[in-house]
Amino acid sequence: MNKQSQRGVISPYQLFFIFLVSRAVVALTFYQSILINGISPDSLISSLAAFVINTLLCIPAYLCCSKGKSPLQSKAGKTVYFIYFLFFASVNISRFAFFAAEKTSSGMGAVFFIMIMAACACYAAFLGIEAIGRFCSACAMASIIVLLLIILLNFKNLQPINFMPFFEGSKKDIIENSFIFSSNSIEPALLLVLFDKCKSNQKKSLFLGIAASYGAIILMLVSCIGVLGCAAPLFAFPVYTLFQMTAFGSFSRLDILYTAFGFFALFAKCSVIIYCAEKLVLNVPSKTKAPLLFLSSSALSIIIYKRFFDEMINGARDFYFYISLAFLALIPLLSLIFTRKEVKNEESN
Predict the structure, then answer these.
(1) Residue of 216, 183, 161 lying closest to 323 (CA atoms)
(2) Model pLDDT, residue 55
(3) Which DSSP string corresponds to 83-131?
(4) Pairing with 114, which of 69, 88, 321, 333 sits 20 to 30 Å away (CA)?
(5) What is the value of pTM for the model shown?
(6) Which positions ≥6 away from 143 have C-beta within 8 Å?
(7) CA–CA distance, 56 with 338 (Å, rounded to integer)
C-alpha cells in the first residue's frame, strides 16, 4: 500500500533539482549571439536583473497552484500549454543540435542529433516523473561538481581588468539583455504540472531552484568574462571555449566534459518538458502518445533549426519574452482572478 501511494510522487529535493537543471542548463548550452553585444561585464547586471524578473514571474503560477486555480483546469488551458511545452522542448532540442553539429567532430548533421535527443527525451518522459526526478538529481550534482572544477582550474587565469568598465553599453541594452535571460525560463509553467507531484515545500523548491540556477549562471559568466575578456563576444559558445582552454595535469581541452554534461543536462530538461506536455494530451490513446510527441517535437525542432536561427534571430528576442510573459504571468494571473477554486478528489493520478 505504501509503495502504491508513493507512485507518481517526487520529493521536494527532486523538485528543486528539476528546477535547478532546467534553468542552469542555459549556462552550459548558452548561445551568446542572441544577446545584444554578446557577453560583457554588463551581462552580469542583466543576469541579476533577470533573476529578479524570473522570481516575480514565478509568483502568479505558485499562487494559482496553492489556491487551486490553475489554468490547466480547462481543456483550452491544457491545449495552449501543451503547445507551449512542445515549442520550448523543440527550441532546446534545436539548440543542442546546432551546437552538436557545429562544434563536435562526429560528422553527423543536425537532423540526426534532433532525432536522437527527441527519442531519448520522449522515452524518459514515459518512464515517469519518479525516474526523471532521480536522474535530474544525479545530473544536477554531477554538473555542479564539473562547473566548480572548471571555475577553480581557471581561477588563476582570471584578470580583474576584464571586468571593467561596467555600463559600457546603453541602459536599454542592459534591460533588453535582462529580458533575454529571463525569457529562457519555463519553470513557473512546469510548476503548474508538477505541483501535485510533490506533496510539500513546493514553494521552497521553486524559488531556491531559481536562485541556485542563477548562481550557477552568474559564476559561469564571471569565469568567461574574467578569462576571455574582450574576446568573449567573439565566440558563439564562450562556456565551451572556456572548457577547451582548461587543463588539468596531463589532461588538456576538457571540452569532453562540456559536451557530456551539456547533453545530460539538456536531456533532463527536455524530458521534464515533454513529460509535462504528455500529461496535457487530450483524447489520445496511451499507445499513440509517444509516437505523437516524438514526431511533433522532431518536426518542430527541425523547423526551428532551419528557419528560426537564420531568419528570426533579432525578432526572436522579443518573441521569446512576450511568449514567456503570457504563459508564465499573464495567463496564471487571469486564472487567479477568474477561475473557480478546484475541488480535488483524493484519488491517485
Answers:
(1) 183
(2) 93
(3) HHHHHHHHHHHHHHHHHHHHH-SS---HHHHHHHHHHHHHHHHTT-HHH
(4) 321
(5) 0.87
(6) 21, 24, 28, 261, 264, 265
(7) 20
> Alpha carbon of 202 to those of 3, 10, 199: distances in Å?
22, 11, 8
Q: How far, in whole angstroms, is CA 109 from its chain's centroid?
A: 23
What are the residues whose beta carbons fall under 8 Å from the beta carbon of 339, sequence distance 6 or more? 64, 69, 70, 71, 73, 74
**Model confidence pLDDT, tens digit, residues 121-138:** 999 988 889 999 999 999
Q: Which three cell numbers stand for residue 58?
A: 514565478
Residues 151/335, Cβ–Cβ less than 8 Å = no
CA proximity to 52, closest of 173, 190, 189, 218: 218
- The overall longest dimension of the chain from CA atoms, in Å, is 63
Q: What is the mean pLDDT of residues 102-110?
A: 71
CA distance 192 to 78: 10
Between CA 306 and CA 202 the distance in angstroms is 38
Ramachandran area for residue 23 (φ above 0: left; ψ -120 to 50: alpha; else beta): alpha
Comparing 43-52, 131-140, 244-253, 316-325, the range with the smallest average pLDDT is: 244-253
Nearest to 316 by CA among 114, 176, 213, 118: 176
- CA distances in angstroms from 70 to 46, 87, 190, 234, listed in the order given: 31, 20, 12, 44
CA separation, residue 337 to residues 67, 75, 84, 242 (Å) = 11, 18, 22, 47
Alpha-helical segments (H) within 155-285: 171-183, 187-194, 202-228, 238-245, 255-279
CA dihedral over 94, 98, 101, 103, signed as positive or negative:
negative
- pLDDT given for residue 133 in this prediction: 92
What does DSSP assign to residue 68? T
CA–CA distance, 4 with 252 (Å, rounded to integer) = 49
Give the DSSP letter of residue 342: P
Euclidean distance between CA atoms 84 and 76, whole angstroms:
12
